[in-house]
Amino acid sequence: MATRVSVHSATNPRPGTAAVRVTKVQLTNDRGDRVAEARWLAEVDHSGIVRLQETTEDPFTIVTDHAGGTTLRTADVGPPEAAEILAQVADTLADLHDAGRAHGKLSLDHIILGSERPVLCSPDGNIDDPRADLQGLAWCVRDLGRKWGPSKHDGEPPEPWATLATRLASDPSMSARRAAQQFRRLASPEPAAPTQEDKGSWRGLLTVASIVAIAIGGLLLVPRPEPSEAADGARVTIDGQYFEVGQAGDEVVVLDHPCDAEGRVLVLSGSTVWRYGSVGNGVEAEVYATIPGATSLSVVEIMVAEDRDPDRPCEAAQAVGPAGASLLETWLPALESSES
After folding, report:
1. Whose CA is closest to 126, among 97, 103, 108, 100?
2. In sequence order, what DSSP letters do the residues of 116-128 get, joined into one string?
């Protein structure tokens, strides 16, 4: 092993600090940069990060508060509980990313289940790319999924966890804050249906030039010169141009070869799917369906008519949730809402 870790009682702990300490001693075959790890812990003050108490030399030793004896790997948790834990982890990561930092070595072993919230330990210290943490979240999801799947050896978590893991690893529009939203939807798979006030606020598909004239808020598909980490909504690419649409946590898909020419852009907000008839200035979104429990959107290739080229199927969207996937056949009349 690269380090020797031990737990011991603190000697004359200061008021407000833990009475138990964890000591990590660097061994000769350690390839990690423990100095960078210690420096990172010293500079980060967050309730979701283990607190550094001191370091000593010869051999280099890191001493931290003892946050708990159970990690997310050793804990016996089911999907809803794990989803809430990972949502809180994603909150911590989002705060780090806002400060220009990243954990860099996220795994189930480095998520300690503290008495009040999950606490992260053992950061890399030299990595500041948020994508490393999103990849780490994807690994965590897949590792947990092996415990819950029908076979512990199939290597894939059950849906919709598998879809979220894929998005965490590969979707450039994903962020830690959006991940937290997605995990909380998994923790509570029956989100409240949107109110009439909510519906009234999801309006125009506007260009930047229109935003000044129509400053009443709404579902804006806002052109951007390039992806922005500070974007409030989802970021998508349409015909080579970046757009921001919806709010943080919303799901958006853009169909390159849509089966329905008037359903190229779809947004999942809560349990409601919104459809845009086209991409352009002044286009309004319409409610297509309400699908309780839906947590994400994905794209599938299908055939919907005999006169289509069989070598080039068209694309449709499907809403995915704990109950499975629902194909959004937007070329058919809008579905009836399930709201009471």
Report:
1. 103
2. SSEEE----SS--
Torsions phi, psi of 338, nearest 5? Answer: -90, 10
Q: What is the pLDDT of residues 137-152, one digit of tens each?
A: 999 999 998 777 654 4
Q: Give yes or no for residue 180 having a pLDDT over 90.
A: yes
Q: Residue 15: is the preceding peptide bond cis (ω within 30°)?
A: no
Closest C-alpha to 276, from 290, 291, 261, 298: 261
Q: How long a stretch of residues is the chain?
A: 340
Q: Could you tell me the two tokens for 25?
A: 């001693």
The 10s digit of each residue's pLDDT in 231-274 is: 455 666 776 666 667 676 788 888 888 888 878 888 888 888 88
| pLDDT at position 220 over 50 | no
Give per-residue pLDDT as tens, 31-50. 778 999 999 999 999 999 99
Cβ of 118: how many Cβ atoms within 10 Å?
Answer: 22
The structure's pTM equals 0.58
Phi and psi angles of residue 139, each rounded to the nearest 5 degrees, phi first? -60, -40
Tokens, residue 188: 């509570």
Q: For residue 273, what are its two tokens?
A: 């799917």
| Positive or negative: CA dihedral 260, 263, 268, 272 | negative
Tokens 């058919």 belong to 332
Instruction: Report the amino acid identity of residue 121.
Output: C
Asked whether the bond before 227 is cis by omega within 30 degrees of 0, the reply is: no
Name the 3-class secondary structure at 258: strand
Give the burial string for 183-210 (b: 16+ CB within 10 Å, else e): bbbbbebebebbeeeeeeebebbbeeee
| Tokens 């960078």, located at residue | 36
Q: What is the tens place of the pLDDT at every residue in 14-31?
A: 666 666 788 888 877 777
